[in-house]
Design a protein that fits this description.
Rossmann fold; about 10% strand; alpha/beta; about 425 residues; four-stranded parallel sheet; binds iron/sulfur cluster
Length: about 425
């Protein structure tokens, strides 16, 4: 019989994450003025609350289920379990720890995993090599990318964690949505068999409904972001990405968006900008620098450059019908999951992302795009050049491309990012 301490030590990286979050929160509370970077202050409060709850569940001995971020976290609410986001752990420890999680990338690299795969998985892979996570089961879609499919084999075959894969269709048509609805349901039932639990789909409805309400608030926020100056600070992007990945389906996520909506409305009425003055409005159709999110603040304050959205934010879905039968519920869940960040953009041809970007550039009165091309995302390799041409031809808007690794500062440092953006900005003003 394991002690409570041994039970919670099945998820040591989540304990590291909680500690890092708590120290950051303390710094924020002590150093920043009361109204400084509200998204960070509010986000830390709610994410910390959910992480504490997660660790408590581990202490009680509930099964540990690792999930890919591309599977909405609330789908696991049909179980009494400890949900652990594999990619979120890598990236948010990279954000919060001094020096990031580079030693874990190196560990798994030295073990023999290819260096050019995604750091979102490599960090957690390195951690499991050291037995810092002890998963009872893992669930992942076969989306969004080859890197995901290639890396999850390590968990299944090298670490022998029972791994369930929901086969994600490539084409976004009605028959694909129905197919994926069946796959999601089948995967949850399979996970239930591994951990000896019957999935509680009534409980699932409740948590899916919370996300419907989150969607409503998020949509309102994004309507307000269309105004000039943008009423939201750049830091909202990485913090809301963390909320989407770690705490979706919880009352805390709803409270986060509720508080953010109130702040956004107030700033909209006052026409105030977080950095003082807005000079440039940008969309980052891909990712931010998770290895250093203070960069968001630098862009706001030093350049007056607003990041209106990144890949984790421009994914909206139809509210899911939670009142009808299970088929309808799973169909809604399937549509949402197929439109989830990165899944939407990666599991289709390039036309939808080009169309979305052109439409968003018009709706949000954007001056330019900044496209961060990650080494790992092979499936995205052809997009930047085509998108740059489309934005130029259709709207006369320029786009800067920066190659980087989202979680590893050693590839393109923040210093280099600043130099490239400074030079680019000079061509705009
Ligand atoms: S799409 Fe790119 S960033 Fe996302 S998981 Fe795959 S390789 Fe990583």
């Amino acid at each position: 019989m394991l002690s409570e301490n041994q039970m919670e030590n099945r998820i040591i990286p989540y304990k590291m994450l909680l500690k890092a979050l708590s120290s950051t929160q303390e710094l924020v509370e002590r150093i920043l003025p009361e109204n400084g970077i509200p998204s960070l202050r509010i986000g830390l409060k709610y994410i910390k609350s959910v992480l504490e709850n997660t660790i408590q569940k581990a202490r009680e001995g509930l099964p540990i289920i690792g999930y890919h971020f591309a599977l909405p976290a609330e789908y696991l609410s049909c179980f009494d379990c400890v949900p652990i986001c594999i990619e979120g752990t890598s990236y948010f420890l990279a954000t919060l720890l001094l020096g990031g999680v580079e030693n874990y990338y190196d560990l798994i690299g030295n073990w023999g995993h290819p260096f050019h795969t995604c750091t979102s998985q490599k960090g957690t892979m390195g951690m499991t090599l050291e037995d810092l996570f002890r998963f009872d089961a893992i669930i992942t879609p076969s989306a969004p990318c080859d890197s995901t499919c290639g890396s999850y084999g390590y968990f299944k075959y090298a670490k022998k964690f029972p791994t369930v894969i929901a086969d994600t269709p490539f084409i976004h048509e009605k028959k694909s949505q129905i197919y994926y609805a069946d796959e999601i349901k089948r995967s949850l039932i399979d996970i239930g068999k591994i951990i000896n639990q019957e999935p509680d789909f009534e409980k699932l409805r409740y948590h899916v409904e919370i996300e419907n309400q989150v969607l409503h608030k998020k949509t309102e926020i994004f309507e307000l972001i269309k105004s000039t100056p943008s009423p939201i600070e750049n830091m909202f992007n990485p913090v809301s990405a963390a909320a989407t990945i770690f705490i979706s389906g919880t009352p805390e996520n709803l409270s986060f968006y509720d508080e953010m909506l109130n702040i956004t409305k107030k700033r909209y009425k006052e026409k105030s900008h977080h950095g003082g003055e807005e000079h440039i409005r940008t969309i980052w159709p891909y990712m931010l620098t998770f290895f250093d999110i203070s960069f968001c603040e630098w862009l706001d304050r030093e350049l007056g450059l607003s990041i209106l959205m990144d890949i984790f934010n421009y994914n909206f879905f139809e509210p899911i019908n939670t009142k009808s039968d299970l088929n309808e519920l799973f169909l809604g869940m399937s549509k949402k999951a197929m439109g989830f960040p990165m899944v939407k953009q990666s599991t289709d041809f390039y036309y939808p992302i080009i169309d979305d970007c052109i439409q968003m550039a018009q709706d949000y009165d954007v001056d330019c795009f900044i496209y961060t091309q990650s080494l790992a995302c092979k499936q995205f390799g052809s997009i930047p050049t085509i998108l740059r041409e489309a934005l130029k031809d259709e709207l006369g808007i320029p786009m800067l491309i920066i190659e980087f690794d989202v979680g590893d500062a050693r590839m393109t440092s923040i210093k280099k990012f600043k130099e490239k953006i400074n030079l680019f900005v000079q061509t705009l003003l």
